[in-house]
Amino acid sequence: MKSKTSYFNRTLFLNLLKRSWPIFAGYLVVWLIVLPVSLANTLSYNTAIMADKFDLQALATAAGRQILSAGLYGGVIMAGVFGILVAMAAFSYLYNARSVSMMCSLPIKREGTFLSVFTAGLSAVLLINVVVFLIALCVAAAYGVLALSAGYLLQWLAMVCMLNLFFFGFSVLCASFTGNIFTLPLVYVVLNFTAYVVEYLVKTVMSLFIYGISMDNNFVFLPLSSPAYLFMQTFVADSTVPAGETFEVVGHYYNGWTALCIYAAVGIVFAILAMAIIKHRRMEAAGDVVALKPLKPIFKYCLSVGCALVLGIIIFETAFSNSTAVYGVRGMLFMLLFMLFGAFIGYFAAEMLMKKTLRVFAGRSWIGLGITSVLITALLLCGEYDVFGIEGKLPDADEVKGVMIMCSGESVLFEEPENIKAAIELQRNIIKHKDENEVFTGNMEAYANYVSFVYTYENEKTLSRDYTLYKDANDDILTLNDLMNVKEAVDYRKELEVPVSVDTIADAYVSYFDKTEMTYRDVELTAAQAYELYTECILPDINDGALGRIWLIQTEDYYSGVYDCTINFSVEKRLSDNNYKGDYFYTTLTRNAERTKQWIADNTDIEPCTMGESRDIMNAQKDSESKLYAEKYGIQIMTAIPAQD
Amino acid sequence: MIEVKNVVKSFDGFNALDDLSINVPTGAIYGLVGPNGAGKSTIIRHITGIFRQDRGEVLVNGEPVFENPKIKKDIAYISDDVFFFTQATIRDMMKFYKGVCPSFSTERFEKLRSAFDLSENSKMRSLSKGMQKQAAFWLMVSMCPKVLVLDEPVDGLDPVMRRQVWSILMADVAENGTTVLVSSHNLRELEDVCDHVGIMNKGKLLLERNLSELQDNISKVQLALPDGKTLPEDLRVLHHSSTGRLQTIIVRGVAEEITNKLATCEPLFMDVIPLSLEEIFIYELGGEHYEVKDIIL
Questions:
Q1: What ipTM was reported for this prediction?
Q2: What residues does each domain of chain A span?
């Protein structure tokens, strides 16, 4: 009799489809809601609001954004969730000694079993994708946008299929080296976000005791956390064409095709790797947390280090949430203590999980923990004493293309060489004044400014550093204040992303302190007024150096030379339905801004007062209120509230 | 023919199989016995291609079993704890085995229907453990295997069904020359069906014989010796007990040789009693420090 055994078995293939139909039905139902039903709703709504002026292109564009967004966000979530569910169903036989015995005694090679159930799971979800695609096409056809939406739907199909390939491949890989059905989804979720979370935790730990380490959003290992990468780095973008001064959105496109293709290819590699692992897997490992022997120490040390990071940060932040002075070596030692505790918990938890016993504290187990502890201690000491030169690292001005400095809600991009050099010099001084600044750590009374430096090198790499500057520590904050008001900085602040015109100004007002009423008031401006004020007064005053400054620190010049009066307006440009691009401008009125002052005097009844006047009025008011309060309740007031510096 | 040659298998440093060798002749019913944890189920999982040995060879009909579908299609296996898909009925499982095992005979499946009091449409999960065992036996025998490997096959079956199962097994061996390897703790039943026996302990095979040879090679003698007479020193006594003058000895060797040696002591009374497999098992393992211990509570 001819043998039926091969690398594919139809019975196993159909058996999985039959056993797992509820999962596939769930996948179909959710997608039907997310795409065709939702698409029909969007098309119906847009058709209704376009009753007066039907625009087929606009309708298709609205549908396009929704379809591609469903492909990205829905695709990642659906492929991620159902990938692991299907993998759990397909490879559940690996996790139980009884099922292992049954499946592995069948006259089918392990590769044959793998390929049969893998193709069953994958082809089912891909088939469902096609069904959803066809139904969505019917919906588009029903609303007359078949031709314009077909491309988007094809893109959706490609996106979702590639995401299925990746997430199912990844799920299957996790299934191949775990030995417990409950561990599998846990491992899958953890591994999906490990790179991102670990990098975040490492940065958090470093920022706690390495002076200047930045908690920026630049994650080097983000692509290794696929869901985070796809959500944070890829998106549905607008296709635009020039329309007058701005642009008009004529469609949408997905900007992450390269990433998706790479992820899909990686998914296939993962699946091949999983097949190789299952072929050589020790089937007696059914029920173990980690089924592959070589992965056991990796699991143990990773869990130990992971717990060291997580518990170290949690305990440190909890213990010192109200602390006033935990920094430097002292802070590092506390962090080290908490991390070693975390490492201990993680290490022995891993041992307990793998050995399935609580008795894991025997002599030799401590050797591994000792090694982990020594490494953690060495790394923290190296960090604290800047063995790797992280704290003192300064870029070479010749290699820097630009530096973005952010402070007190203001950000300026410096690209002129002398300003870049000034920024580097300022950072050098801040590092030099580390001890002076750290003394004020946690001091709520001290006047502090948080400043970020983000250098962009010529090769597009970046270097980020963050510092907290204290007015009472040194003059660094004054130097920074000067830098933030050089001409390049003032010009940077006046440039808006949307060109300023009467048509683009959405909202404009002057906010000032009304000294007669002793309160702040807003005076609305029309778009025309705002445009006139901006172009004929503000811009010339800025060009004369009389307006456009910011103040990171309040000096006597500030109180005498600056009005408690700001001019604000927002600009926005409609790109498509519910899609706007906008920017915001504000400036603080100064005594020297003659044109602007004159315009306000001519066009409004505002009588601006200086910062010093408003401060004194406010303090007097507080003083008076305090006296009234004291008289009412019989409290004796020892001193009046002093005027601020 | 099943050949296990010097197989070693360890689990986390523990040697479950320690240089184990077994030979099961074609057409034999081979009883594999041993205490709990001896490694019986482990070697069975090697013979059925589930586990891969660390060292040594596991051959069926001269070919390695592991990852060899050509050989595995001729092997049917009933584990001590049978597994079926959760929602499956007996008919579903029949279709499944028919799909994966080319030798599955629907005709035989239908023939065996009357032997088991089971409904084809019953969900496996609704069946008792004993009924699941019956279903497994029904399905496995329907595969027309050349080698049938059974791990505690009648565990959980009622006496009638045990007899039914053994009867089907014997008939299959008689008609088709099926080789059967059966592991069981029920030595009384094994004694009735097996023609070969292997005794395992601590991952090793203590002995492997044809059952009649085994029984011929160990004897139980009851005798009473005259005053002043002692047992000959060259007797290989496995066990010795006495009640008054009456002595009971378990001696390794052929009964005739033993009685000839004992005759030299001029016993007042002597009787050779045949040993059951259970007694052989107990006395053989007694020599391996696996005996019944007298515990005073």
A1: 0.86
A2: 10-194+220-285, 296-384, 400-492, 499-612
